[in-house]
Write a structure and sequence with these properties.
alpha+beta; Nuclear Transport Factor 2, Chain: A; 9 strands; 26% helix
């Protein structure tokens, strides 16, 4: 009768020795052992954008988990964001309907990773993001009443977004306002070459900020004093503050 397999202790002992040696090198300053940072560039466990509902679930997860590559994949190539004329008239005057996919990706990446603004000031990245699109209604696009199978209009009565900025100048921003999203099916969408143009994919091609005028809109994002309440801003203001001015 063959004896049961018992793994040798040698590999385990060698692995322990290797770990000890690397730790010793790092502690002594010898060698160049410097493990690369772990970057979450996936959305494991999140459904793909195969329905309008799942597209918004994936949108929320990509933003909340700060995964810019997956976030960008959800935007059609003709994507447009429109600022609220009530809360952000200056941004409306600056961008009109010209805030496109490149602007959106740049702004979002700067929020996730930090950047240097127009004044040469380093802006810290978001340490945490909590986003909820609860109460979203999915209806046929009223501008395309006969194309419900290809277009969907998503009404979010009030997004709930809290962003905590880390670093030496911590701050917390809160966003709560209505937003409208417009989705298009992949087989008729205008897409980049690396996006799936199948009928079982959906993409965001338009996004309208419906914020009303805030009682005290911040002219620019700045750190909060200790004990100060979170700053109320608009999502449009957040976006506009995270790009280099045109």
């Amino acid at each position: 009768m063959r004896a049961p397999f018992r793994p040798s202790a040698a590999p385990a002992a060698f692995a322990l020795f290797a770990l000890f040696a690397l730790a010793t090198l790092a502690a002594s300053g010898c060698g160049t052992f410097d493990p690369p940072p772990i970057i979450d560039d996936t959305l494991d466990g999140v459904p793909i954008n195969d329905t309008p509902q799942n597209t918004m679930v994936r949108f929320e997860a990509a933003y909340e988990r700060k995964v810019p590559v997956e976030y960008g994949k959800l935007l059609a190539s003709n994507f447009r964001f429109t600022f609220s004329s009530q809360s952000d008239p200056t941004l409306v005057a600056t961008y009109g309907s010209n805030w496109g996919k490149d602007d959106e990706i740049e702004s979002t990446l700067h929020l996730f990773e930090g950047f240097t603004n127009d004044q040469g000031e380093r802006q810290n990245p978001a340490a945490s993001i909590a986003l909820s699109l609860d109460g979203a209604s999915f209806i046929d696009d009223p501008a395309r009443p006969d194309s419900g199978g290809f277009y969907k209009y998503v009404i979010v009565p009030s997004v709930s977004l809290t962003i905590e900025i880390g670093g030496t100048d911590p701050a917390i921003y809160e966003i709560s306002a209505p937003h409208d999203f417009y989705l298009v099916r992949g087989d008729i969408a205008l897409l980049d070459p690396d996006q799936d143009a199948g009928a079982n994919r959906w993409y965001l091609y338009r996004w309208d900020d419906k914020s009303v005028a805030l009682a005290s809109a911040a002219p620019r994002l700045a750190a909060l004093a200790p004990g100060q309440r979170p700053a109320r801003i608009t999502w449009g203001h957040l976006k506009g503050s995270h790009v280099v001015a045109p």
